[in-house]
Design goal:
442 residues, alpha/beta, 8-stranded mixed beta sheet, 6-stranded parallel beta sheet, 17 helices, 14 strands, 43% helix
C-alpha cells in the first residue's frame, strides 16, 4: 500500500493543465490499447489490475480522486484529480476527446463520478466496463459493459430460448476478512485527508468520529452474534417452515438504493409492510426482517420494527434477525419482499415467491412480481407466483455467463482470477501465472 502522497511520476495540476500534461507524457504506444481505471473496490485490486494489464502490453492509466484512492495505487501512470464534480465533467470530456482511449474500467456504475464518466464515454464511443460485487456470491464478481444492477445491459431481460444451463460452481475465496481492513484504511484516509472540492466527489458520506464508533460497534455486535447462537432463526425454520415472509433490509448508501429504489427505503418499507401485514395477512403467517450485516452498528432498525409491530398488535408474529446466513431462511420462507437487493436472486434460486418493489436486474414478470414502485403487499400475502425450476435455473446460469466472472476483489488468489475475467471482457489473451505473480510482488 502506498502512502497518500504525490511524486514526480504523478500528474497533479489544474484540470486543463492535467489534460495537456497527460498527452505530453503519454504518447500512446503503437497498437497498444489505452485503458483508464477510475475508482475501484476498497483495497489493492485496481492497483493489481493495472500492473497485470500493463504486463499484457496495455497502456493503463489510473485516475485517483482522494487520499483513499492514492493509498491503494501506484505512482506510475497516475493522475490525481482534486477538483469539483462540475469540473470533473468538463475535464473528463476533454480528456476522453483527445486521449485515444479504448476502455474505461470502474467499480460502481452509479457513483456520481462514474455516472459522468459513462455519459462522456457514450458521447465519444468509448467502451465502459463496470464492476460490482458479484450478483451471485461468493466466488463471482460482476463484470459488465456500461452499467450494473438496474443499469445493466441485461436488466429485466430473460435468456434466449435456446440457452443451455451449464450449472458451474465457482471456487470460493476468503475475501471478506480483508475487506473490512481495506475499507477502514480507505475511508479513514479519505475523510481525514481530503480537502475542499474533493469532498463533492465522495460516493458516500463518512464522518470520522461517529463512523469509527459505528463500525467498531458493528464489529463487536457481529463477534457477539458468532458466540451467541441465534435460536430465533432455528425456531422459525423448525416451527414455521413455509409460513413466514422474509424481508432482507438493504444498506441505504448502496447506489441501487439511491438510483433504482423508486423512492423506497428501509423505513417506509418497514412501515408499509407491517401495516399491510396487520390488516390482511392470514393469522398463522409470520413476518421476518433480516438486518443487513453492514448495518448492525449504523441503522439497527430492531426497535422501530418491534414497537411498530406492538402498536399493530402483531408483535408475536413479527421477528427481527441480525445474524446468521440468509440462504437457509430464504429456502424455508413463504415469500420474499425486497426493494432491489441481490438477495432476490437467492429467492429465484430456491423457488421462493418474490416481490421486487423497485428496479433490479432480475425484475422480469417471468421471474418475480414486479411492482415498479407501487407494490400491492396485500395481494402478495394471499397469491404468489413462482417460475418453474427450468426457467429459474436457466436464468441464473445465463446471468453468470453474461454478467459474472469468477474471482474475488479482496483475496490475493481471487484477485488473480478476477483480473483474468476483466482481461477477457476487454478482449485480451490469457494471463500467465508468472505475469500475475510479478504484478503482485512488484
Amino acid at each position: 500500500m502506498n502512502l497518500p502522497r504525490e511524486d514526480a511520476d504523478t500528474t497533479e495540476s489544474r484540470p486543463t493543465e492535467t489534460v495537456v500534461n497527460f498527452h505530453r507524457q503519454a504518447s500512446k504506444p503503437s497498437k497498444a490499447k489505452r485503458i483508464v481505471l477510475l475508482q475501484g473496490p476498497v483495497g489493492p485490486f485496481f492497483n493489481t489490475l493495472q500492473k497485470n494489464l500493463s504486463r499484457q502490453s496495455f497502456d493503463v492509466w489510473r485516475i485517483c480522486f482522494h487520499p483513499g484512492d492514492l493509498a491503494f495505487s501506484s505512482s506510475h501512470n497516475r493522475i490525481y484529480f482534486q477538483h469539483s464534480l462540475a469540473e470533473w465533467e468538463s475535464w473528463f470530456s476533454d480528456f476522453v476527446a483527445a486521449g485515444d482511449i479504448d476502455h474505461i474500467v470502474l467499480f460502481g456504475s452509479e457513483r456520481n463520478i462514474h455516472c459522468v464518466a459513462r455519459k462522456v464515454a457514450a458521447q465519444y464511443g468509448v467502451k465502459v466496463i463496470a464492476l460490482e460485487e458479484g450478483y451471485i456470491r461468493p466466488g463471482y464478481i460482476t463484470v459488465e459493459y456500461d452499467g450494473n444492477n438496474a443499469s445493466s445491459p441485461v436488466a429485466g431481460m430473460m435468456p434466449p430460448k435456446n440457452t443451455v444451463s451449464k450449472n458451474n460452481e465457482p471456487k470460493q475465496y476468503k475475501g471478506p476478512r480483508f475487506m473490512g481492513l481495506y475499507a477502514a484504511i480507505y475511508y479513514i484516509l479519505r475523510t481525514a485527508l481530503s480537502v475542499g472540492k474533493q469532498k463533492e466527489l465522495f460516493h458516500r458520506t463518512f464522518s470520522t468520529v461517529p463512523d469509527v464508533f459505528y463500525w467498531a460497534r458493528n464489529f463487536s455486535r457481529r463477534m457477539l452474534r458468532k458466540v451467541c447462537k441465534d435460536a430465533t432463526a432455528i425456531n422459525l425454520i423448525n416451527s414455521h417452515d413455509g409460513e413466514y415472509f422474509l424481508i432482507p433490509l438493504q444498506v441505504p448508501t448502496d447506489s441501487q438504493m439511491k438510483k433504482a429504489a423508486k423512492g423506497w427505503n428501509s423505513v417506509n418499507l418497514i412501515s408499509s409492510t407491517l401495516a399491510s401485514f396487520a390488516q390482511t395477512a392470514a393469522k398463522e403467517k409470520h413476518l421476518v426482517f433480516k438486518i443487513h450485516p453492514l448495518e448492525l452498528g449504523h441503522n439497527n432498525y430492531t426497535q422501530l420494527i418491534k414497537k411498530t409491530a406492538k402498536a399493530f398488535n402483531i408483535q408475536s408474529r413479527v421477528h427481527v434477525l441480525d445474524s446468521g446466513a440468509l440462504g437457509p431462511l430464504v429456502a424455508h420462507c413463504a415469500g420474499m419482499i425486497t426493494i432491489n437487493s441481490t438477495s432476490g436472486l437467492s429467492a429465484i434460486y430456491h423457488g421462493v415467491p418474490l416481490l421486487v418493489v423497485g428496479d433490479a436486474i432480475y425484475a422480469n414478470q417471468a421471474l418475480a412480481t414486479c411492482a415498479h414502485g407501487k407494490p400491492d403487499f396485500g395481494s402478495f400475502w394471499e397469491e404468489r407466483f413462482v417460475a418453474t425450476e427450468e426457467v429459474r435455473h436457466t436464468y441464473l446460469d445465463w446471468l453468470k455467463e453474461t454478467s459474472l466472472k469468477e474471482g474475488d476483489f479482496y483475496n490475493a488468489n481471487g484477485m488473480h482470477v478476477a483480473c483474468q475475467g476483466v482481461l477477457e471482457k476487454i478482449g485480451g489473451q490469457a494471463m500467465s501465472e508468472t505475469c500475475y505473480q510479478e504484478a503482485v510482488v512488484s
